[in-house]
Structures
1.
Amino acid sequence: MREPCAANFRRRMIAAQPLFGRVRARDWCDWRWQMSHSVTDPDRLPAWAGIPAAARAAAIRAAAQYPVRITPYYLSLARWDDAADPVLMQCLAAPQELQAEQIALADPLGERRSMPAPGLIRRYRNRALLLMTGACAVRCRHCNRKGLLSGQRPARLGPALRYLGAHPEIREVILSGGDPLLCKPEVLERTLAALRRLPGVEALRIGTRLPVVLPMRVDRALVRLLSRFRPLWVNTHFNHPNELTPESAAACDALIRAGIPVSNQAVLLKGVNDSADVLEALFNGLQRIMVRPYYLFECDAVRGAAHFRVGVRRGRALFRELRARLGGLSLPQYVLDEPGAAGKRPLA
Ligand SMILES: *Cc1c(COP(=O)(O)O)cnc(C)c1O
């Protein structure tokens, strides 16, 4: 990870220097530096220059309700003077987050009532999801756990592991959160080892956005740790071709070379990727770095993120266009996640 990060350091500095001053390449490529220098105060961003004062005040109120957190690396992929930049739109608080939305819910998937043990979400018979942590490197504005995660503390996983042990029909466990790869390596290792000891659990999956927002964290030691627990899949979350960088490609490549297939779950987001050209470039770009487009999600009706919803009608039209343009290995399934269903519902 060091090499692609150092090789692109100058390019990133052109974007990042106004905010972070002079940074050494060694620090920039250190994920701990990235975490400790992440932007949590939206008032610090020069992007605000062109935004009217009222909208800016509303966005700062939104940030008080739904915290902002952006890594310097992720911010360096954006043009800050453009509030419509697809990277910025995914991480910068917006006034629309506080608009009252009748259909939007704090917990649109009913996850809270699907927890047989603290931190364990079970909505399907044969797979379950562990909330490893509430922490993320970047707080996505469109997060479907936007309501669930605010204030969530990591649960003690003992009861969840005991539940999984008593339910051998659960054959796949997904580590999620928050971002599980932000957990201490010891915690990750202990959890993966405990899951591997359960006789019913055949496959493990990790949902993480770190390859996209903090690729330097995917270092040799972490990859080696993960590779000991195969069969293990990683699902990551690229939403726009601007996120496909040499650094993010290298993070995915390190996992793939260690025998960990990487797939992608994108979300259809108004103003970010709701165009056939953008999605075509995203999915073909993912194929180029050997990341399999897995799902394209319809954006959930989550409170504080409803302004990102494109709607199923337009979504279907976009998807028809994609099907005509893309090969099978570049084409994800266009799906809706809804409470009560036996799985994600195909929309195409
Ligand atoms: C999405 C999800 C899964 C995984 O579903 P797949 O279709 O296998 O990707 C498992 N558990 C929960 C709670 C989920 O939301």
Note: Residues 121, 123-124, 127, 129, 174, 343-344 surround pyridoxal-5'-phosphate (CB under 6 Å).
2.
Amino acid sequence: MSVSVNPFPIHLLQSFPPTPLQRIRWEAADRAQIEVYLKREDRIHPQISGNKWRKLKYNLVAANNQGQQTLLTFGGAYSNHIYALAAAGSTYGFRTIGLIRGEEVLPLNSTLTFARSCGMQLHYLNREAYRRKDNAIFLQDLKEQFGSFYLIPEGGSNALAVKGVAELVAELHTQLRWDYLCCAVGTGGTLAGLVQGAGGKGQIIGFSSLKGGDFLHQEVRKLSEAYAGLTNQGPQQFNNWHIQTNYHFGGYAKVTPELLQFIRRFEQENQVLIEQVYTGKMLYGIENLLRKDFFKPGTCIVAVHTGGLQGRLAGL
Ligand SMILES: *Cc1c(COP(=O)(O)O)cnc(C)c1O
């Protein structure tokens, strides 16, 4: 029997008001007679931002229920997930271990400096070791090295993450009627959560932030299946979603002058900060599709601002 010694403030996890919706000013949308709103998930928590908070929520509850005091995860040196998990650990009373892809670079960048200031223990894995991050034997070795921990996969995406993101859609239903729901895609956890939350209604569109993002369709299906296992409902696969794979601007975290110019214009016209890895590419993609008359006139689009502003290029 394990008794948790964490003073886990579970009520804090449940006391977040709905994130606001912001109407987007867009000529391309006006011309197409379409309303576009930004769901401001970036405002959900100052450090545990956007979709990372949604994805962590039920994982924190599960870790606490299992009596685990340590959270271990993986990520790149600029990862929003590492940043959010470190903040969640210090907020909710968990020890955190971050296994970072690549070699240590000193001085630490701002993401890792913040993570360490939250108490996260940082370790580095070369690319070969990092590739084994989901391997059972490798994880067993980690238990021998670090002791017992609650594992949260790269990007925070697992069945419980899907459950957390699905709540976003339930919340949105109380706010307005929508036809299209858009999000950026990294690992696919957020998109899977929106798809499951929507339960077959509307159209859900992901925008891949990676080059060659077609494999992400499979990732979303796998995560949806894992979520079905959790709910004992049997697999619920829906067909009202797809991933746009042509708005990656050269690949993950790559930018072009055109993308940066778009972001500056969007930020000025809407008085909101976005960033260049995820939301900038998604919003560029939506504007481009509006110009191509992709969306049905008279409809309403909600684009999810998944946060991640800690990774916004300085001087963008
Ligand atoms: C992590 C992240 C994403 C991608 O979410 P996935 O669930 O991994 O697809 C999108 N936007 C922002 C700002 C992120 O930090």
Note: The mean pLDDT is 94.
